Amino acid sequence: MRTHFLLCFLFLFSYLGATEISVDPITFNDAYTNAGDGDVLLLEPGIYASSVTFPSGKTITLKSASATELPEIRFGVSGNDEAIMNGGLIFDGLKIVPSGDYFISVDKVGDIAAIRVLNCTIESVNRCFIRTNNNGYSIGEIEFANCIIRNCGDKGWNFLYPKHIVRKVSVRNSTLYNYPGGESFFLANASDTDNVMEFLFENNTVYKWAKSSDRALCKTSKNYSVNSNYVFRNNIIAEPGVAGQTPSLLEATGGNVIGENNLIVNYGGYKVSNAVSQQVNDLTLEGLGLSALSFPDPDNGDFTILSGSPLATAGVDGQCVGDPRWIKSLGDAVHVETAALPEEAGSVSPVSIAVEKGDNATFTATANYGFRFKLWQDGSGKTLSTENPATLQIDKDMKVVAVFDAMDMQTLTVNLTGDGAKWGKVTLSPEAEGNRYEKGTIVTVTIVNNPVTSFMYWEDQSSEVSRQVIMDADRELTAAFDVIPFIVGWDFAVSEPRGNRPGDYYYQTDNTGNLSLYNYDGSSTNWGGSNRTFGGVTYDCARRYTAAADIKTAPRYFQAKFSAREYNNIHVKSMIAADNECVHKLQKMQYSTDGTTFFDLATIDMTGKISTEWIACDAVLPVTLTEEEKSTIYIRWIPDLSSELLGQPADDATEGFYLANLFVYADPNDADPEPPVLLSTTPVEGSSTASANGTITFTFDKKVKAGTVPVVFNGETITPVFGSKTASYTYKNLSYGTQYEFVLPEGAVTNFVGNSFPGVTLHFSTVPRPDPIARVFDAIVAADGTGDYTTVQAAIDAAPAGRSMPWLIFVKNGSYREQVIVPKEKSFIHLIGQDKEKTIIHHKLNVGGKPAEGDNDEFWKYSVHNPASEVYQFEGTVVKINATDFYSENISYVNDWGIDSQAGPQALAMSTQNDRSAFFNCKFRSYQDTWMTSSANDNNHRTYVTDCWLEGAVDYFYGGGNAYVEKTTFYNLRSGAVIVAPSHGAGTRWGYIFDHCTVDGNASAADGKQKLGRPWHNSPITVYLNTTMNIPIAPEGWTDMGAVPALFAEYNSMDKDGNPIDLNNRKTTYTHGDGQTGSCKAVLTAEEVVKYTYENVICENDNWNPRMFMEKVDKPDDLVLDGEQLSWKASRYAICYLVFCDDEMIGMTKDTFFNVPASGKDASAYQVKAANEYGSLSEPATASKGTGVRNETVDNRLQVLINGNELSVLGVSAGVPVILASVDGCVVRSMTSTSDKVTLILPSLKGVFVLKAGDRSVKIMF
Q1: 1123's torsion region: left (phi>0), alpha (psi -120 to 50) or beta?
Q2: Which candidate, 895, 962, 897, 955, places its Cα nearest to that of 928?
Q3: Which fold, 973-1102?
Q4: CATH class of the domain whose range is 1111-1184
Q5: pLDDT at 99 over 90
Q6: β-strand 1136-1141 against 87-92: which pairing, if any?
Q7: Would you tell me which of 528, 623, 930, 1044 could form a disulfide with 543, CB atoms 3.0–4.6 Å apart?
Q8: How many CA atoms lie within 13 A of 904 on its CB side?
Q9: How far, in Å, CA of 870 to CA of 855, rounded?
Q10: What pLDDT sits at residue 18?
Q11: What pLDDT, on a 0 to 100 scale, did the predictor assign at position 1261?
């Protein structure tokens, strides 16, 4: 207690002379910069996100101003100047949740006085809480007291990882838990064997900390003095971060070690060699009379210990062990033990608990796989609750039992066959333990592409890469793969080994290859295993790292070794990248046949490519190599020492060069002179069940390769994939129910000596388009309260996460003044408005910074940075889409600040930040920066916009990614307006493509000063195709900004009267920065624009086709009002109908009739629109007055009734085959009708199915 009093006194003394300054998130940075030594910044509640620099010559305290609401620190602390000396930071009463991987990350910083963390909650530190990188300097003390540290270490590394020499570390009265991916708590990253370190770890609770046995709470190894002092006292240290591992409390050489009254459970001990002294007197569960360490709910942070427990007094001098905050005193304690029934069915949290008699306690049951929670009961079998979690009042000692039911489980077996089976792979979604699924589950089985296999077909001859299977019984599937002829390859999918590594793939077991990293002197070393994303493409990879001191004279190099005997046409393919300046501009791929003399195969110029993209580094070995020379081939990736570095690296930098996806392809020698003979095709000749997206595979009697004649199908040239005996042609977006002819011409396929297959013509038909499942919208938003929600955000919040089918939200006409954020996990939101002129989502906000005194500050009232504003800490946009697969139509998105003020600053109406966003018949209105596209995380996110209106004046369509905009108006609001300001990263495939759009504007914008765009950053791309310009554009067309565009160009631009615009004066030379210049093309030819198609930009490899979202179904025919009932004929492919009266939506139905309220209105007041399966609305049908007699036309759709496990189909003819199948064609039940009604007895089903009767079909959802 004397020690505790003294510490408190010292801290009190330090505060007595301090100046206390109240700050909020806006004033914080200025106050921090101007703070003096000892000043205390009292942080008001809020989020603090602006990073700061470590202080120099002063200690600053950041302290919560509130005792109840903790300020949230998201910023990082940095420093890169050795002049920063003798500074310190104290954090007191804060919640620290860094937005980056590190919290304190300083490089070239001098001595640090102290870093103290008091009464704080720390969470979600991905890598290091403290990381320093400047050897030769020191940190006086690092202290944690009364802290909670939880849920950290997702990206590995050590919590405290200093290269500074640390004099003292103390951790007291704190709880550290859930660090499964992290390494040590403290690791000394530099050596000073004269440093006598003091390490104190006292009264802490540690749970699930550190991922491996080679880690420790304190790991100094040989780096500090053998006279260092290590004290561990009164701690509870239980369970490693990864089960089965045994990380240590301490790993050191030498030292004076004291271990007093620590309870260590399933954890390592003191790994100390040659200790100067060692006094360890720790506790055991047995010695305390305990059978287990029974915390109520440790995984969720409940480490309660009752005051009567031996743990409450087991410490030195009768103190508790562990963090004292968890000691709990009860006046009239009652105890609960929990259990699962049956025992193997699951688990219950807490395992045991003690509460005050009469208090409530909450229990959570977690089912093991194959079981389902049923109910809670007490020890006598009495039911207590069916809720989970359940909150129960506890009045006595009792037992609470979670009862589980066993589920009916079925097993899915997937066999792999064919020459490529060894390397073929499939994924199952959902994944299941032992591939056992609850009966009725629909499992999606997907082929995983890899560089050495070609998927051919499934056992039913279908060729979709993804299929579904209904687990109504044990199921068995077979996927056939062929092998793409290769010798060896490395994809680095697993990190180890990181040197002397056989091929991850090899065709022959006696030729497995080898890949190593070599020092310049020829000795081998290990590379760094990594996973990196450049240009939106991610690869597992190997890092080559040469120290900056050696990079110019003695660089390391990768070298692969294999045999190519009996092969020809040998291709070496690889991907390379760089992420720092310590890399040579020129990189070489070389070959050798003796391992000594190397010849260049390829030279890659990486100038300007730091962290921009993965670059193909490919080559073909000389055809002149003899079989003897091919018996051993060496390939190496080495810098060209005659080239410069990419920049000026720091003295302690290491090379950041990456190698990925390395494969050696080759054709085996084959002297068979006979032409290939066709054995089979998939689909077969005359098939009527081909899918709209699939693969046509030809299987031959011998190994084949590509000939010289191209294959054209459905107007597209198709590039084949050749296996050893197969040629596969992948197609996409065929029409439903259509006959096709695929011609494989003579000369398209040959054997390995060049003899051609004579060709064949294959005929097949695609399956008919099925009717969609009849259903209404999932949610209706109405500002007047007549819907399910009054705000759009509320409807999105209520939408389920992880969707793979559209979640339909209808928004009635109204003014929705709100910010709307679609979170990343809410994919497939389809937001459908009633009328874009009357359905308006809007708000008044901007992102302007605080103006200087005396400046116009009107915008500041609406700034998201102004603590006094109602939009304080809002996202800087009215609407932000963080999820994939978003679609919207008939809505206006408006930023009121931009429209009302007709001025800046930045005021976004829309921000789309993920892949596959589509908009139809929408308006986007603001002034500056109306719409930001894409994300820094992926250069190739896609946005599709058609028949829309974009309004603004300054850079009002800007950002990155691929955007295909067609039949849309760009409306300019001022003289000198600029439409786009792209910032496309390297590796962006298309950029902004505008086709058949219109450029227009108000009277101010008709003065001929408007600009098509300016290059913001990086490598911008914008192409205007077939544009109608209703207002004159400046002759130069474009203007300068912050980069040289990769492409700013036009084709076929016309004035408002349809006359060609003179493009001869368009700008081609750009200047930015300090006079840097560059050029790009301004006018495209007809041949150059052919590639800019919807199919290339939008559909790409995953066949995304948003145009089908807005394919209108026919409006309802024969709409009549008879009395108080509207009725109409069904619209083919409609899922439901929306009923309107005087432009107000009054109902929605799946039926073809609707009862309207008595109103006396004329029939013409009523309209009905049909909705397609994506929510898009038809044109309206207006009602006429009925006569009471209708001339009915029979609805051709199938009539289906479902009663329990019986499915009845009405209105069929005798002799018609009736088939129920999954959406990929897997037949569930089938029979031939004998009358006009067919009844099928069904298994338990879940998901979407297609019922087909003759030539009619309908989708059904179970």
Answers
A1: left
A2: 955
A3: Pectate Lyase C-like (2.160.20)
A4: mainly beta
A5: no
A6: unpaired
A7: 528
A8: 13
A9: 21
A10: 66
A11: 64
16-20, 236-240, 469-473, 715-719, range with the lowest pLDDT: 16-20
CA–CA separation, 358 and 76 (whole Å): 46
Q: What number does CATH give the domain 772-893?
A: 2.160.20.10
Report d(CA 898, CA 877) in Å as an integer: 11
Distance CA 919, CA 1252 (A): 33
CA gyration radius, the chain: 35
Q: How many residues does the chain have?
A: 1262
Cβ neighbours around 1080 below 10 Å, total: 19
3-state secondary structure 368-395: CCCEEEEEEEECCCCEEECCCCEEEECC
The CB density around residue 910, as the number of other CB atoms within 10 Å, is: 28
Distance CA 363, CA 236 (A): 25
Average pLDDT over every residue of 1204-1231:
73
Q: How far is CA 503 from the centre of its chain?
A: 30
Q: Where exactly does CATH 2.160.20.10 map onto the chain?
A: 772-893, 973-1102
Residue 784 carries which side chain, given as an amino acid letter?
Answer: D
Nearest-angstrom CA–CA distance, 556 and 1: 58
- 155, HSE (Cβ side, Cα atoms, 13 Å): 11
State the Cα–Cα distance between residues 877 and 912, nearest whole angstrom. Answer: 10
Q: What's the pLDDT at 1224?
A: 52
CA distance 1027 to 549: 55
Q: Which amino acid is at 611?
A: S
> Six-digit token pair at 730?
């992948």
Cα 814 versus chain centre, distance? 34
* Cβ atoms of residues 145 and 119 within 8 Å: yes
Q: Pick from 554, 545, 552: which is nearest to 525 by CA?
A: 545
- 583, 646 in Cβ contact below 8 A? yes
CB 172 within 8 A of CB 202: yes
Which residues share a beta bridge with 1077?
1071
Closest Cα to residue 877, out of 830, 910, 912?
A: 910
Most confident of 226-230, 348-352, 771-775, 870-874: 226-230
End-to-end CA, the chain: 68
Fold of 487-668: Jelly Rolls (2.60.120)
Helix, strand, or coil (residue 49): coil
CATH 2.60.120 maps onto the chain at 487-668
Q: Which CATH class is domain 330-406?
A: mainly beta
% residues pLDDT > 70 (the chain):
96
Mean pLDDT, residues 465-478 taken together: 87
Spatial separation of the C-alpha atoms in residues 616 and 662, rounded to whole Å: 10
Sign (positive or negative) of CA dihedral 95, 97, 102, 108: negative
- Average pLDDT over the chain reads 91
Cα–Cα distances (Å) from 786 to 453, 567, 835, 842, in that order, read 56, 73, 17, 20
How far is the C-alpha of 1156 from the C-alpha of 1147, rounded, in Å?
9
Q: How far is residue 1099's CA from residue 716's CA, in Å, rounded to a whole number? A: 14
The H-assigned helical ranges of 723-840 are 792-798
CB atoms within 10 A of CB 642: 8
* Tokens linked to 1174: 């994506």
CATH topology of domain 678-766: Immunoglobulin-like (2.60.40)
How is domain 20-295 classified at the architecture level of CATH?
Answer: 3 Solenoid (2.160)
Taking residues 300-327, report their average pLDDT.
94
Tokens of 42: 């009292």
Task: Rounding to the nearest 10 degrees, give the CA dihedral for residues 1024, 1027, 1031, 1034.
Answer: 30
Assess whether pLDDT exceeds 60 at residue 12.
no
Is-contact 361 392, C-beta < 8 A?
yes
User: Which of 2.60.40, 3.30.530, 3.30.1120, 2.30.30 is the CATH number of 1199-1261?
Assistant: 2.60.40
Please, which pLDDT band fits residue 221 given cuts at 50, 70 and 90?
very high
pTM higher than the cut 0.85: no
